[in-house]
Amino acid sequence: MMLGNLFGAGLIPSQNMYDPMTSQRLILQRNANFVLRVRAGPDMANLQTIDVNYERTPLKIDSRYFKGYITVRVFGFNGLMADPCHPPPAQAEYFANGFSRKALYSIQMVGQFHGHNLTADDIMFGNYFDQRLPLPPFSGLFEWFMKRMDRTLALDMKSDNPSATSPLLATVQKLSYWKGDLHGSEHSSVPEVNNKVLREMLPIDGAFDEEGRVAEYFPIKDTLNKDSKKRRHYFEKTSHRQKWKVKSSDTYACDFFSPFIDVNHQCVRMPNAVVEPMPFFDGDMPLRYECRTRDGRHTFFVVQFELIPASRTRPLSSIQNRPRRQYRDSGYEREILDPPPPYSAEQ
């Protein structure tokens, strides 16, 4: 759950909670002032802009500690792309059949972890910040509540470098695993949306569903488990995580998503229709997810959602009625779709 639920649970400016007009005005203002860019890489020193919602062009990472692919989807994405020949799709296939009610964005990882004597207790995933957060009053109460919701959550919100992390295998919504000497049948159907990734990683049958999303396919006590709640509950115990060895020859497919954080519109959406500007997410404070070892010595991969000031882009002539922008720092032409209304019924 991590900081995504903390944003929706109480770190929201209280003065706007019951004033929808103020909230909507702030959201529209932030959308006008900033453009979303997503970067990823093996560590903070090697981040690159990725093509959001392009299933066939995932970011490949081949580092000392992680070898695999990262795919990021954002519902209604209207931000900057890495390749000027890849305008943002109207919508990712990932969000088909109303899945946007469960996920407003998704970070998918498929790959292998490399390290000495790694266990499920060593690999942490979550939010990291580079500066102290201006926490509101009574934030400690919400931290206590979130730890009750996610017993593996490790919070360090009051330090100069705050973080909110959990063991990767205990926190992701979907997880599939297969050994290096096992793979699917030769003629098994491979979801087209992940064709490149799956052909190279040779997943076992059942690791992905028919729509291309990561499926729950994880053995617990030598018994195949297809219930993510059982797997997450199993890994709540430290002893269970420490017994699970993460070998470099084994492949993991994980999908982490949130129904609350709308990075495209820079706001938090709650089940009761409360929509608030996303706190701590602005031009100076990106929303960053990192996968590290528990001791922080090694980083496996990083995904960072950044807000680029609109002043650093300029509008170009439209193509097929789709507005475009040019990112001044790179010289590439980026296409940006008109964002859907913040309060549309589909969301």
Automatic annotation (TrEMBL):
Domain Domain of unknown function at the cortex: start-end pairs: 36-307
Transmembrane region(s): none
Ranges annotated as biased composition (Pro residues): 338-347
Species: Coemansia pectinata
Superkingdom field: Eukaryota
PANTHER family: UPF0590 PROTEIN C409.17C
Coiled coil spans: none
Pfam families cross-referenced by the UniProt entry: Duc1
Region (Disordered): 316-347
Biased composition (Basic and acidic residues): 326-337
Name of this chain's protein: Domain of unknown function at the cortex 1 domain-containing protein
